[in-house]
Amino acid sequence: MAISKIQNKKYGNTFQVDIRYKNTLGISKRHIKSGFKTFNEAKKYERDFKEQLEVLIEQGKSTNKTFNDIYYEYMEIEGEVKYARSTKVYYNVTHEMYVKDTIGNENMGSLKYMNLQQFFNKMSEKYNPPTLKNIKKLFAVTFKYALRVGYIRENPIPYIQIPKLQNERRVKVEIISDENLSKIIDALQTVKRTNPYSSGKNAEFTFKSYAMALIIGRYTGLRISETLALKRQDFDLENCCMTVRRKIEYSGLKAKDIHTTHQLKSAKSKGTVEISKLLCSYLKKWFEINPFEFVICDGKGNFIKPETLNHRLREVCKELNINFHYHMLRHTYATELVMSGVNPVVVKDLMRHSDISTTWSIYTHPQNEDQRKALDNLYMEMK
């Protein structure tokens, strides 16, 4: 800390306080205050600032609760009423897998910027940026709660940077070819007469419903929980549009307790979007044999759990030796739109993203072959 005299022709000599310090997060800061008429005024200001700083630092150390303690407290007090069941499951699984037995045992007051940045740097050696972003979200809500109730005086999370991948570790988002998807759809509908659980009219209808779920995912990019909650009324086949209103709530629930919720991933997840005439033709044929309110259901009109559909998919894909999971349909849909030259803003709306950067950075991944084709087409035209 230093006090210096400043010469000013207009106001005469004044004094300036220049204070360098580390805040409660351990981040270096500098505070400058000018305009003091006397040295003693500047000295008093310096002394008061230092005392306030020491109080803040001590208050920041005062809590004896760990990060885990405060996370559990937050989820019990606020998370219970704030989040949908699936969101709570998402946070709890993230906490259990990545935080609970690592930095979660640390005293909240001792978690400074440097500790947390080192934690994320270390985690980046094992996990990709999307996983690290999920972990950061958990830290963000917990630290904001701790700040609100007075456990901490400053929130370090806005300073935390997610380490970028090196080129050799670049994430490759998987997509599915229409050829392989057709094979999967055909195999899904095959009823094995030798298996009493996979035969009969109920099984035949259910397997066709599975296939329809894949077709809808392929041509809309809907998430599996949204697809399985669709009703007939959500489609306007004459005008080729679809309204996404709800998703099924299923995490940790028995089949009889599954229900729909209007609380989707974000506000932008809800809305009406255009669908292709090709999908409309599939749906018209499906509605001729599906008498139920829900578009995707079993032979009795009951909900289909994602785990049940995914289990059947794994069996089929193993037999066909094809790598596939349902979310690949969303990647495929978005990537195809972008590679076909669709305006990014249109892609964003069709995908129902809140931010166009999500559309561009996560769901669009042109491969080297695509890049070569683009260059070849460009320079062939210039010959």
TrEMBL record:
Q: Where is the Tyr recombinase domain?
A: 171-376
Alphabetically sorted, this entry's keywords are: DNA recombination, DNA-binding
Q: List GO BP terms, alphabetically.
A: DNA integration; DNA recombination
Name the Gene3D superfamilies for this protein. Answer: 1.10.150.130, Intergrase catalytic core
The molecular function terms of the Gene Ontology recorded here are: DNA binding
UniProt-listed Pfam families? Arm-DNA-bind_4, Phage_integrase
List, alphabetically, the PANTHER family matched: PHAGE INTEGRASE-RELATED, PROPHAGE INTEGRASE INTD-RELATED
Family to which this protein belongs: Belongs to the 'phage' integrase family.
| UniProt protein name | Tyr recombinase domain-containing protein
Organism of this sequence: Coprobacillus cateniformis
